[in-house]
């Protein structure tokens, strides 16, 4: 069976969509539309390869087995020769699409080769050009107010070490500042995992949040039981995250009351934990700009501004987890830029679309001694080279402008589909910024059926929460790709 997609008879290109340039921002994109050539998805070759892979690694979460050599721009190829329009981009982690010419050219350079085959232990032997590389990559996109960066390897590792930085800052303040030495009791007791050297402190997170799958990150993750079950966890406090009603402009009064109630609970928890007790004092609050794994749940700038105010007043570190939202998908490089904060976060964690991981932080959070936030590699200079090229392309091709223009087309189309199919429970609560968006279905079964129907018709999409479909296209996703997606989504909904 061969299924290709052109604009359907009810083509969204003929409707009253917001206008955006259809100019390609991916040079010589190889494909013009999805193409499914197998009778089912995943196809027979994908299934065979996956069976082999599962003999040595547990990959039961696989959508299909990909062929990255044949993937191009916004299109991903699978092992069977199927071509999909990718609106999910490896869980929001591909910024420039597949096989971008600028990255291919950069990878041919002697600089890339030398860096790739000589991965240094940066903490003890950084290269002579490492400072310049840091300034040309990470520090070019450092969030306002944050002057330090700690490169690491994964988003979870960034979260774990951000917590360590917050705890060390808190204890330094308790001792009277970073120049005050550890006591003998501190040093002896920590080796027995006891206070005062191993203090009872906590991190406050929010209901339905996700911050990673490593140990401390799991302790603040609240989105899905399957992530957490059987794993020991820190007994740390959780506050309610606002559950807003959509459309937001029609429920401003109700949503403000919901946010105020959540903020009051945050302040109450922090104040109640000032002395050792069940949780211990709160050293930091960690929050996502959008609760992505939790179902793309949003809050208003007012909520985050108030959260920043509360943490500042209570002497608590404010950590913003931009692992999924950072890198431009929301139309600004950092999603928290949409909040218009008067005082920046203390720590911003990143990964995914930056193709590198770590956290930015304020200088006063620098540990009092070396080796306190440390591992063998402290990131990977090769990823810094990759990020440098990514930033070059974002700037040269004005990709944030493209994201915002395409987002208007995308969301205009989704809202029109909501009017058409909302009564069937196929699409409701359309929301997002830039091209970082989502909508809900009436129940998990409907959501899963719609994702599978999209895949059968050549669109790769992802779910989250209980019944949400989330969209995470690359920064090179244009109005042309948005219209193809909307037409296929329309076809799918008309069949369900």
TrEMBL record:
Keywords of the record: Aminotransferase, Pyridoxal phosphate, Transferase
Enzyme class, UniProt record, top EC level: transferase
The keyword Protein biosynthesis is assigned to this record: no
Organism domain of life: Eukaryota
Gene3D superfamilies: Aspartate Aminotransferase, domain 1, Type I PLP-dependent aspartate aminotransferase-like (Major domain)
InterPro entries: 4NH2But_aminotransferase_euk, Aminotrans_3, PyrdxlP-dep_Trfase, PyrdxlP-dep_Trfase_major, PyrdxlP-dep_Trfase_small
Gene Ontology cellular-component terms listed: mitochondrion
Keyword Repeat attributed: no
Single GO MF annotation: pyridoxal phosphate binding
Name of the molecule in the record: 4-aminobutyrate--2-oxoglutarate transaminase
Organism: Acrasis kona
